[in-house]
Amino acid sequence: MNHNFQKDISGCGLTGLISRKRHRISGSDIVKSLCLMTDRGNGLGAGYAAYGIYPDFKDFYAFHIMYDEPAVRRTVEEYLKSSYHIEKIEEIPTKAVKAIPISPMLIRYFVSPLKEKLAGDQQETDFVVNTVMKVNSEIDGAYIFSSGKNMGAFKGVGNPSEIAEFFKIDEYEGYIWTAHTRFPTNTPGWWGGAHPFTLLDWSIVHNGEISSYGINKRYLEMYGYKLTLLTDTEVAAYLLDLLIRRHGLSIPVACLALAAPFWKNIDQRDPEEKEVLTALRQTYGSALLNGPFSILFGHSNGLVGINDRIKLRPLVAAIKDDVTYMASEESAIRAICPQPEKVWAPRAGEPVIVNLD
Amino acid sequence: MFKSLAPPEYLATIDREKCIRCKRCIQNCGWGVYAWGGDKVLIDTFKCVKCLRCYHYCPEEAIEIKDNPTKFKQNAYWSFNNIRNIKKQAETGGIPLTGMGSDMPYPILFDNLLIDACQVTNPSIDPLREPMELRTYLGKKPSNVKVEKTKDGKLKLSEPMPPQIKLDLPIIFSPMSYGSISLNAQKVLAQAAKASGIVMNTGEGGLHEDLFPYRSNIIVQVASGRFGVNPEYLNAGVAVEIKIGQGAKPGIGGHLPGEKIPLEVARTRMIPVGTDAISPAPQHDIYSIEDLRQLIYAIKETTNYKPVSVKIAAVHNVAAIASGVVRAGADIVYIDGFRGGTGAAPSIIRDHLGIPIEHALAAVDDRLRQEGIRNEASIIAAGGIRSSADVAKAIALGADAVGIGTAALITMGCTTCGKCYTGNCSWGITTQRPELTARLDPEVYAERLTNLIRAWSHELKEILGALGINSIESLRGNRERLRGVGLDSFTLDILGVKPAGR
């Protein structure tokens, strides 16, 4: 079986913001916020995700793909052409940065699945997920690291300011941003292994170590997910995809499954709620994310921040006007929003859910 | 009479200087080792099984039970038991019987698995300060939950959950029937199950009316002899178990001799007093998986759809069998490894048929996941669970809960002497002789058994805390937190476990 893997372990810093009124905010803000938390990364990975950055192509899936060599690019493009209408292919704009002497080939594609390729009543999203799984697990040297609509992830090996400069993050404008700096303890760093981790419109940045990883992975494999990255973040992303997109749970209910309340609290609820919470734990026990974590996950309609059940990793939130900020440290928020109207530390396991108006 | 050429295994000895001739040893020994000779205690050491009842009840510590030094010449190939059994068989032409689980020196995989712990990158959790959850639900789970919002914004289930058995910790008492063990021993199990928030299992012996008050902590069993089965019995507990096989004697039925069938056992089993109670090897209405499905659903219809468990022995092809059992509609698959205990089994069967629970459990959990049906049934692993470490390892390999039998009996005085089939148990456990069963005070021993469960639950919480997780479901199937030592790569592959150092 698929047990002989080496899991990736890292500590991290994360930050994110959302404008409820869809004001598009320059990437320079999020870069400034992330770059403040120098202690939280060691230069072995950083990344950014933004929503609302491709308004001209908002109906197409934006595939960001990294290639180790040109030959692989041909293989993937042939495969894509057979299943997708490709609206546009271009190199992801980058700038030469001294600290990043080598980088993979980075190409983006705006695509939509060919209708005749969808089997029966297959959802378009399922088709796209299958493509991502197939390319990432079966084609060596190619990696789809972003696959949503009107959003994109930009990430690599380097410190936050270098990666931001490399990808020219300050030239993008988005209404939701998440960002991440890594402190891996065991891997030399691979571009694909940096955060954010994305699938369709989901993007995840994550600080922590999922101690339940082994069973979360096996649980997801039962539903056809192929875990190629061996990071905790990947597990969180796929669990959200399974629970929300495929099982149809609302985001608050999915959070109740992933960071479930303790039995002693469930037992005190009124009978109907107790029944729901009990059923969620009984059914989604293998999806419970256990161990220290704080996670920000962005999606096409909003941003969610959540901690583990006993808050073993930091997460601070703040509000100013229509913008909500969430970060590992309050200082990272105040760096770009010196006087928020409200600042608070979300309680363990209680999600902060912000939806676009 | 011809003296047996099979030498005694043990030498019971009495220090004549210390002995005060109180005759407690005579009174306590269920095997008839001791007798009064007018001025001293006489010893028939051939009958001694080293159950140590006499030793514990001798007020002067005058008794010593030694392994017989006069064994056959030491031989690495012809073991003492090989030679002894041949001599016995030559004398009787019979099948040597035995009780308990196999004591043969096969490799013990549990002892080659080690559990992970946290350092730096993830904090360990102190179970004395933080909540630590062991609660477990047994039964079929849907693949997803459908939730709706009511008008006042509250959450409500759109579809009811299948019935579940709630356990305060992932341990149950394995099936042991009234007949094979005494009613007092069953009362110990029932009382401790209730006090610990877990369940016991009647085994195939019916349900004595004294246990009715414990019905919410009882699983009733239906096996090939159908003893004590009627609609009232099927509805008496929280679930019904269909016993197909037993780890200690896969493919073999049961035989409770008439001597162990006094009035109460006969009433409970619904058979005449003193008749042999024979459980056929197969269930004669189950010759196939489709027959099993029919019985499962017949029982569900009778019980208004209580969970149905199917107990199978761990045999070579156990993964495919378990998959069939789940597809046939079982809510729980109970897998019994070859180390599992028995009240009576031919020793040749016990020691040579079946496979260990560790392999079987890993194979079944893998197969059910490959087929996408792991949520359809809970897995109970049993057959040689000796400690909370074994519990944790079994759960990490994929079990929802474990069954313990021998460990529970040990709290009642059992020393695993292995002579359960004789009906002479001096501790009052595997006997129906009233003077022996009266020794087992249910209240006293239920407290001991409850203590054991409490101690194991503390240990399990310590293990979870060291692993940095605060709920048992995050250990279940989490083989990433196990490592193998000294295991070959095939075995590691079957267990789905990395070698230590990786």
Notes on the structure:
The complex is a heterodimer of chains A (about 350) and B (about 500). Chain A has about 350 residues and is an alpha+beta fold. Chain A has one domain (about 10-355): 4-Layer Sandwich (Glutamine Phosphoribosylpyrophosphate, subunit 1, domain 1), CATH 3.60.20. In chain A, about 30% of the residues lie in helices and about 30% in strands. Chain A contains ten helices and 18 strands. Chain A has helices at about 25-35, 70-85, 125-140, 160-165, 215-220, 230-245, 250-260, 265, 270-285, 330-335, and strands spanning about 10-20, 25, 45-50, 60-65, 85-90, 105-115, 140-145, 150-155, 175, 175-185, 195-200, 200-210, 295-300, 300-305, 315-320, 325, 340-345, 350-355. In chain A, the strands form four sheets. Chain A has a seven-stranded antiparallel beta sheet. In chain A, strands 11-12-13-14-18 form a five-stranded antiparallel beta sheet, covered by helices on one side. Chain B has about 500 residues and is of the alpha/beta class. Among the domains of chain B are: about 10-95, Alpha-Beta Plaits, CATH 3.30.70.20; about 125-140 and about 165-240 and about 260-290 and about 320-335 and about 345-460, TIM Barrel, CATH 3.20.20.70. Chain B has 15 helices and 23 strands. Chain B has helices at about 25-30, 55, 80-90, 185-195, 230-235, 265-270, 290-300, 320-325, 345-350, 355-370, 390-395, 405-410, 435, 440-465, 490-495; strands at about 10-15, 35, 40-45, 65, 95-100, 115, 135-140, 145-150, 155, 165, 170-175, 200, 220, 240-245, 255, 275-280, 310-315, 330-335, 345, 380, 400-405, 480-485, 500. In chain B, helix 15 (about 490-495) links the parallel strand 22 and strand 23 (about 500). Chain B is globular, with a radius of gyration of 24 Å.
